[in-house]
Design goal:
The chain has about 400 residues and is α+β, with helices and mostly antiparallel strands. The strands form 4 sheets. Strands 7-6-10-8-9 form a 5-stranded mixed sheet. The protein has 13 helices and 15 strands. The protein is about 25% helix and about 25% strand. It is elongated. It folds into 3 domains: about 80-145, wza like domain (wza like fold, 2-Layer Sandwich); about 150-245, Outer membrane lipoprotein wza domain like (Outer membrane lipoprotein wza fold like), CATH 3.10.560; about 250-380, Outer membrane lipoprotein wza fold like. It has helices at about 10-15, 40-50, 60-65, 65-70, 120-130, 170-175, 205-210, 240-245, 280-285, 320, 340-355, 360-375, 375-380; strands spanning about 80-85, 95, 100-105, 110, 135-145, 150-155, 160-165, 190-195, 200-205, 225-230, 250-260, 265-275, 300-305, 310-315, 335-340.
Length: about 400
C-alpha cells in the first residue's frame, strides 16, 4: 500500500525553518491587490518629481522656499559676465547673455547660461573649455546685473510696476514711494513664478530688524517678482512711529489744518507737508499762528483708526506742547487733521458725532474732511458763534 502524504500548512513550514516548493505556475490569489488607478499612478509620479526637486510641492507656496535658495541670483538675458581663465589669458573674456539665454565663449561658441547661478555658470564654462584645454581653472564675476521689473502692491504710496537697477527689496519699496502708515512690515510677501510655471511665496520680516537696530534682510528680487505689503490689523507690539522714522516709509506726510481766527473772514484751511515722523509741535511751528490771539489750549488731533473704522479725536494743549510736555506732543501720521480753536473743535466734534455711518476706509475719512473744508465759509461763519 503506497504511503499517503498529508498537506502541511505554509505557516508550519515557516516555523520549522523550511520553505515550500515553488509551484511550476503561480496560482492566482483570491487576495491579489487591485491594479492601481490612473489617479494613483499620477500621484505617485508627482511625488517622485517632488522628491527629486523637479516639482514644487503644493505647500511650498504657503510655507515659502528656503531663504537662502529664494535669495539665490540666477542669470538671465542682459547679465554681463567677466570670465577669467587662469593660465590661459587669451581665453578670458567679458560678454553679455543674449535674449535667448546664451553667451559666446571662446573655442566653445554659444553656451546656454540662463537660469544658472554664478557657481553653476562657472562649472558649465569650465566643463565646456575642458574639451579644448587641460584642467582649466575658471572664475566668473557678474560685472553688470540686468535690470528687473517688479510689481509692488499693498500699503505703499504708489503701487505699480517698477524697473529696478538694484533689485533689492528695500529699493522696490522706496521706488513705490515708501510704505504707508497702515503697512505691516512683519509679513511682507514676495511672490515669484519659477521656470516650471509654479508660483512660490516667501515672507520677510522687516520690522523686527528695525526694532532691534539690526540690518534688514536684503533679498535679491528677480524679474517678474511681486512684492505685497499687507495692511496692519493688530497694533500690539508694533511701533508705527519707529517705521515712520525709517527710510522704508514714505518720506513725507500730509496733515490737514483747520485754524479758527487767522484770516479776515475768521479762519483758514490748509495742508502741511511734513517729514514722516514729525511731531505735533513740528506742525504747530509750521502754521502761521498769531500766538497773542490764538487759543492754543484747545486743539484737536483727529485721526482715522483703521481697526475701529472711525475717527478718533485727541484733545491737546498746544501751549503745554510748546513748553516741552511730551504727553501733549504725539507723532503725527499721514492724513491727520489738526483743528485749532475752541469753537471750531466743538463744530468738528459735533459733525463727527452726528455722522452715524462708520468710515469704510481711510478714503471715506479723507473725503469727509474734504467736504468740510470745501464749505469753509460754514465752518468759520458767524452761525457757529461762541468765543475762541
Amino acid at each position: 500500500m503506497a504511503p499517503r502524504f498529508l498537506p502541511v500548512p505554509l505557516s508550519l513550514l515557516a516555523l520549522l525553518g523550511m520553505t515550500a516548493p515553488a509551484p511550476s505556475q503561480p496560482a492566482p490569489s483570491a487576495f491579489a491587490p487591485d491594479p492601481a488607478s490612473p489617479q494613483q499612478i499620477l500621484e505617485e509620479a508627482r511625488q517622485r518629481l517632488i522628491e527629486r526637486r523637479e516639482l514644487v510641492s503644493p505647500g511650498a507656496e504657503a510655507e515659502g522656499l528656503d531663504a537662502a535658495e529664494f535669495a539665490t541670483y540666477r542669470l538671465g538675458p542682459g547679465d554681463s559676465l567677466f570670465v577669467n581663465v587662469l593660465r590661459f589669458p587669451d581665453l578670458s573674456f567679458q560678454n553679455t547673455i543674449d535674449l535667448e539665454g546664451n553667451m559666446l565663449v571662446p573655442l566653445v561658441g554659444a553656451l546656454r547660461l540662463q537660469g544658472l547661478t554664478i557657481q553653476e555658470a562657472r562649472e558649465q564654462i569650465r566643463l565646456a573649455l575642458d574639451r579644448y584645454v587641460v584642467d582649466p581653472v575658471v572664475d566668473v564675476i557678474l560685472v553688470a546685473q540686468r535690470p528687473v521689473q517688479v510689481t509692488v502692491l499693498g500699503e505703499v504710496v504708489r503701487p505699480g510696476l517698477y524697473p529696478l537697477g538694484a533689485p533689492q527689496l528695500s529699493t522696490a519699496l522706496i521706488s513705490a514711494g515708501g510704505t504707508t502708515t497702515l503697512a505691516d512690515l512683519r509679513t511682507v510677501r514676495i511672490r515669484r513664478q519659477l521656470d516650471d510655471g509654479s508660483m512660490v511665496e516667501h515672507e520677510v520680516d522687516l520690522f523686527t530688524p528695525l526694532r532691534d537696530a539690526q540690518t534688514i534682510p536684503e533679498l535679491q528680487l528677480a524679474d517678474g517678482d511681486t512684492v505685497i505689503v499687507p495692511t496692519l490689523t493688530a497694533n500690539e507690539g508694533y511701533d508705527r512711529s519707529l517705521i515712520a522714522r525709517s527710510t522704508l516709509a514714505q518720506p513725507q506726510i500730509s496733515v490737514r489744518v483747520l485754524n479758527y481766527g487767522t484770516s479776515a473772514r475768521g479762519g483758514s484751511v490748509g495742508r502741511l507737508q511734513l517729514p514722516n515722523g514729525s511731531s505735533f509741535v513740528d506742525a504747530l511751528t509750521s502754521i502761521p499762528l498769531d500766538l497773542a490771539s490764538a487759543d492754543l489750549r484747545k486743539i484737536a488731533l483727529v485721526r482715522f483708526d483703521v481697526q475701529q473704522g472711525k475717527a478718533i479725536t485727541q484733545e491737546l494743549n498746544g501751549r503745554n506742547a510748546l513748553m516741552g510736555e511730551q504727553s501733549q506732543n504725539p507723532i503725527l501720521e499721514h492724513n491727520d487733521v489738526i483743528v485749532i480753536g475752541r469753537t471750531l473743535v466743538a463744530r468738528i466734534t459735533y459733525a463727527l458725532n452726528t455722522f452715524t455711518q462708520p468710515f469704510r476706509d481711510i478714503l471715506g475719512f479723507v473725503l469727509f474732511f474734504q467736504s468740510l473744508t470745501e464749505s469753509a465759509s460754514d465752518l468759520f461763519g458767524p452761525s457757529g458763534g461762541g468765543s475762541r
